[in-house]
Design goal:
alpha/beta, 9 helices, about 220 residues, globular, eight-stranded parallel beta sheet, about 35% helix
């Protein structure tokens, strides 16, 4: 099956995707920023996102695709706004699992300040998923993936998962903003094959969404 994965930390089975650098090393051998950038190839449908560290939040990065992970790095929404402003990236990924330090409106405010910049809200807020699908519905430069949220909290729609997570994902895949939903696995932390089984007949639509976004940001 051909599919694109918009949230990976190393290459695997996908035909293209967004490779996100992680400066904190994990046992599953994720890629650092330097390693991730080696795989950046628009022609091969791979975009590498550079994770901005706390030490670099005031710096000119020199790469057009940036990832912000406030929980790991400890920066504020205003610092992220400053970083985006000075770097003017072609696209941004922001990790949304940052409770209790950021609230959903913090992410929305950033998107409103930069309405021409595609912003991907990774994990779609976790427990706060309803707030984030609302943001995606209203704010047209927002894209979301449900990586980790669908596997850890929703447990792929199984009985022991949070039903609100599964319901929110099913709603999103049918609603008017379904063209801004991306498949994300968070590989190698989670199994791509399990994610593929979960999305099933929606893979074609999610592939189209990825290709549309890729054309916008390349």
């Amino acid at each position: 099956m051909i599919f694109y994965d918009a949230h990976i930390h190393k290459k695997s089975l996908e035909a293209g995707g967004f490779i996100i650098g992680l400066e904190k090393k994990y046992d599953k051998k994720t890629l650092s920023n330097t390693e991730a950038l080696l795989f950046h190839s628009v022609e091969e449908k791979y975009i590498s996102f550079y994770q901005v560290t706390k030490a670099e939040i005031d710096s000119l990065i020199g790469h057009g695709y940036l990832k912000y992970h406030a929980r790991l790095e400890g920066y504020s929404p205003d610092e992220v706004v400053h970083s985006i402003r000075i770097n003017q990236p072609r696209a941004v990924i922001i990790d949304t699992l940052n409770e209790p330090y950021w609230v959903p409106y913090d992410y929305w405010k950033i998107a409103q300040i930069f309405p021409e910049t595609p912003i991907i809200l990774a994990h779609a807020g976790g427990y706060a998923v309803n707030e984030f699908i609302k943001i995606c519905n209203i704010q047209k430069n927002i894209w979301i993936d449900f990586s980790l949220t669908h596997s850890v909290l929703g447990k792929y729609g199984e009985e022991d998962g949070l039903s609100i997570i599964h319901q929110a994902i099913c709603f999103s895949l049918k609603h008017t903003f379904r063209n801004r939903i991306l498949l994300g696995s968070d590989y190698p932390f989670y199994d791509q094959n399990e994610v593929l089984k979960y999305y099933g007949a929606n893979i074609g639509m999610l592939n189209t969404n990825f290709e549309t976004l890729l054309k916008m940001i390349k």
